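Hi V.,

Quick status before I head out on leave. The structure for the redesign project is tokenized and pasted below; the design run finished overnight.
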């Protein structure tokens, strides 16, 4: 009996990449694979009905899922309305860490298993974090922009203007998951003294690598602070005006995690007054960043457009993680990354 699969991709994880990974994971199981192409990243994702960070429309998904038992996607929406109109669907694999494009409660009511792909971009995001951290610590953002305009900023060699060397510097990481732990390993190898604030980390995980401290102590002692926490009720807005003020003057703040962790108005104030020497940012409270945003003119800011998780390796890893769940489902094995 042939199993119908919808491979709903985009311009990052292409439908054909999903399809190839699913065929490999399925082995000899007969498959009919349909392909659906969404416009992201050329077309921003956003809310679709009750879910967020989704691409396409409910009607597109309903039409493509008719008769399909399995869907693999990155941003395709799974809403209550889609579930009502797609009774054959049994497995929905979203190749991302946070399955915010799926209504998990509605899927559970319909008997649809939803799986995610944790860790698929941990290495890429850790590397990008280090890129921004190093660039912000050495004033690369402003000097690069000036030199592209023909201005030679040799004054960055002044004692009061030159950057921070990683070796021997105390660097604080807020969060020690798949990304934070990778960043810590590299910084430790470069000679930094790494502090970690994460109430959920096991002490043995830090042995010989980092020192676990309360958040106020981390902020007080760290010349560079990098955010790696998940967004929860507890962590939303966790770095605000008071926390930034607690950091040493001339320090650097990096955020490649989520915009909701940080008060960006307070950050801009700190950059403009010189309390912070720099910031490395890949995530924002509003995306795309509005043309009038203070971030675009804040001194010392190194900015990238939420691309930390984007590498060709990530696209293949994400497709493979989603396809592996399809293989388990077809073989009747327990799903490894079910989230509902």
């Amino acid at each position: 009996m042939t199993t119908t699969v919808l491979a709903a991709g985009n311009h990052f994880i292409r439908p054909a990449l999903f399809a190839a990974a699913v065929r490999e994971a399925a082995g000899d199981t007969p498959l009919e694979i349909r392909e659906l192409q969404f416009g992201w990243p050329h077309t921003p994702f956003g809310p679709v009905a009750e879910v967020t960070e989704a691409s396409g429309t409910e009607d597109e998904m309903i039409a493509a899922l008719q008769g399909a038992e399995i869907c693999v996607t990155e941003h395709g929406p799974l809403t209550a309305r889609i579930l009502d109109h797609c009774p054959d669907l049994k497995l929905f694999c979203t190749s991302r860490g946070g399955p915010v494009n799926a209504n998990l409660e509605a899927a559970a009511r319909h008997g649809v298993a939803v799986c995610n792909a944790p860790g698929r971009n941990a290495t890429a995001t850790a590397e990008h974090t280090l890129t921004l951290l190093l660039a912000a610590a050495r004033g690369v953002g402003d000097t690069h922009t000036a030199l592209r305009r023909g201005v030679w900023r040799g004054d960055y060699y002044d004692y009061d203007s030159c950057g921070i060397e990683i070796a021997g510097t105390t660097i604080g990481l807020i969060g020690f998951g798949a990304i934070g732990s990778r960043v810590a390993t590299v910084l430790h190898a470069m000679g930094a003294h790494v502090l970690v604030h994460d109430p959920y980390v096991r002490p043995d995980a830090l042995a010989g690598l980092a020192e676990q401290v309360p958040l106020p102590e981390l902020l007080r002692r760290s010349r560079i602070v990098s955010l790696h926490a998940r967004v929860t009720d507890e962590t939303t807005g966790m770095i605000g005006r008071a926390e930034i003020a607690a950091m040493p003057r001339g320090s650097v703040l990096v955020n490649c995690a989520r915009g909701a962790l940080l008060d960006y108005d307070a950050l801009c104030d700190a950059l403009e007054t010189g309390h912070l020497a720099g910031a490395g940012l890949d995530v924002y409270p509003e995306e795309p960043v509005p043309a009038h945003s203070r971030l675009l003119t804040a001194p010392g800011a190194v900015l990238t457009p939420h691309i930390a998780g984007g590498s060709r390796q990530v696209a293949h890893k994400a497709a493979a993680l989603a396809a592996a769940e399809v293989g388990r489902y077809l073989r009747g094995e327990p799903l490894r990354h079910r989230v509902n």
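Above is the designed sequence. The chain has two domains: 3-120+311-331, 122-303.

G. will cover questions while I'm gone.

Best,
W.
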